[in-house]
Every structure is written in C-alpha cells, then in structure tokens.
Amino acid sequence: MNTRYVIKRLVDLVREEALRNSYSEITGIYVRLGAQENIREKDLVRTFNEVRDNPLIKDASLVVKKSKALARCRYCGNIFEVFYFNNRCKQCGSTYLEFVADRGISLEKVEGR
Ligand SMILES: [Zn+2]
C-alpha cells in the first residue's frame, strides 16, 4: 500500500467522523497498524504532517499503534502472540505454526472539539 493513499483515506475517514460528531477541530487520531503491514509508523506520521495544512486537522496528534504478531497453531488451532525466539504454541507446545496475516491500517478513535 502506498503511504500517500493510506493517509488520504485516513483523512477522509477523520473528516466523516468530525462531521458525525460535529467537531470543528480534531485533536487526536488513533490508528492501528497491522503487525505485517509494510508501512512504517514514521512514514505515516511524516506523510500526515505533509497534509495537515488544513484547519480541521492542523493541531491533531497522530498516534499509531502497531499490532502484535499473531500465530495460529496448526496442531490445536490456538491463536496467540508470537515472540520471535520462542515460537511455540502455549497451549499444546507444538512448533507447527502459521502466522496470522495482519495487514492494513484502521482508524480506532478520533478525538475533537
Ligand atoms: Zn497448539
């Protein structure tokens, strides 16, 4: 995904939320980034800063949270958070795992006034 496109979509969503809540100014934008998403946090923030020249979002802070990596155990189906040096199912101990695809970016919360 292209960072500019992502930010454009994000600002569109923020604008919709602002309308819905009658905010004239956005103060905080909270975004979650998938664990396997290729876009980096700092690129998102940098691109956002390039488009924030707009009365609605000029003073908004952009908070990006990266999701934890998840894996599914192919043996028992358990889904759990993965620590890279200890990739073992916590429920059955199997090492037969697949990563759960977690891409994309979602808008979690918008704060404004
Ligand atoms: Zn298991």
Tell me about this structure.
- With 113 residues, the chain is an alpha+beta fold.
- The chain is 27% helix and 28% strand.
- The chain has one domain: hypothetical protein PF0899 fold (2-Layer Sandwich), CATH 3.30.2320.80.
- It has 2 helices and 6 strands.
- A 3-stranded mixed beta sheet has the order 2-1-6, with helices on one face. The chain has a 3-stranded antiparallel beta sheet with strand order 4-3-5, with no helix packed on it.
- Strand 1, helix 2 and strand 2 form a beta-alpha-beta unit.
- Helix 1 packs across helix 2.
- The longest helix has 19 residues.
- The radius of gyration is 18 Å and the shape is elongated.
- The model has no long low-confidence stretch (mean pLDDT 91).
- The site of zinc ion (ZN) has 8 residues, from loops.
- Give the CA-based shape: elongated
Which ligands are bound? zinc ion
Series of secondary-structure elements, N-terminal to C-terminal: HEHEEEEE
Q: Please name the CATH architecture.
A: 2-Layer Sandwich
**pLDDT averaged residue by residue:** 91
User: What is the CATH class?
Assistant: Alpha Beta
Main sheet strand line-up: 2-1-6
